[in-house]
What does this fold into?
Amino acid sequence: MSAAGFLCYRADGRRARLYLHTQPGSYSSDILIPALRDLHRRLRAPVILIWDGLTCHWSHKMAAFVGSQKWLQVERLPGYAPDLNPCEGLSANLKGGALANRAEETIGQVAEIAHRSARRAAHNQQLLFGFLAQTGLSF
It folds into this structure.
């Protein structure tokens, strides 16, 4: 099971949102492109996406998609800089909390626990802004 977290912050700093996308197996451009379209439908606003170096983030197919979307701007994180990625804070929060020391029988059970925990995090503005603050990045 793979997960993609989208931590979204309004440019004026008034609100943060979290979207968690999970799917069996690893991510590819064919899976991420519909997830990005869904994100845009939910936000109904222009998006500046800050991405790490995952291969499917920079494929030819993804580059063509990004280049064709007026609502989407992509900025790349420097290599080997997970400390600049707010989603790393989310991941650490999930792994150190609800997912710590679990012995579930199926990956589906683990995914349900992760989704439940992410929904709780999504309702905590202070926590979502804390993930950004720990990176040292700002608006």
Observations:
- The beta strands are 2-9, 16-23, 47-51, 72-76.
- Helices lie at 29-43, 60-67, 86-96, 107-122, 125-133.
- Residues 32 and 38 are 10 Å apart (CA to CA).
